[in-house]
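Blinded run. Sample ID left blank on purpose so nobody reads anything into the name before looking at the predicted structure. Input follows.
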Amino acid sequence: MILPKVRDDRFITIRRGGTLTDSDHRLLALWAAACAEHVLHLFESVQPGDPRPRFAIEQVRAWGRGEIRMSESRAAGGHAMAAARDLRGAARHAAFAAGQAAVTAHVAAHELGAAAYAIKAARAAAPAAAQDAGRMECRWQREQLPEAIRDLVLDDQRLRNQICWSVFDSVPPV
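Blinded prediction complete.
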């Protein structure tokens, strides 16, 4: 469970009654794609013939550029998460990160799911140094944040850390 029980208006677009601009929604989706792509190799090293997570990342980027409809990105996200179904560990989390990134086109608040699953993937890939790997991944993600959405995402991490497996609590904002 990565979404709050009550939706945050900051992650609902203005045309749907929230305060999120379309441009910031696209920035959230592109940041989520970067987070997922950063750990994608952990999936592809286990499932080199399965294109679904990579395709999901490509689709959300295409949505972010205005090239495809939201429903296409959302569908690709579902397929990426299906790729995780029979896997365990880092590969599973990396596929979920890609899926969460792609569905950010539909629900902006999934941006944090992509980031959290990427951190879980990094931790699972380095069991002897899981906490350090998670901190490094979180730090890298924060360095990728566009200034326009930086405060929004950092506040979202603070508010939803507990329902996101507490992956954001060990790294102070940069």
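Unblinding after everyone has recorded impressions. The chain is about 65% helix and 0% strand.
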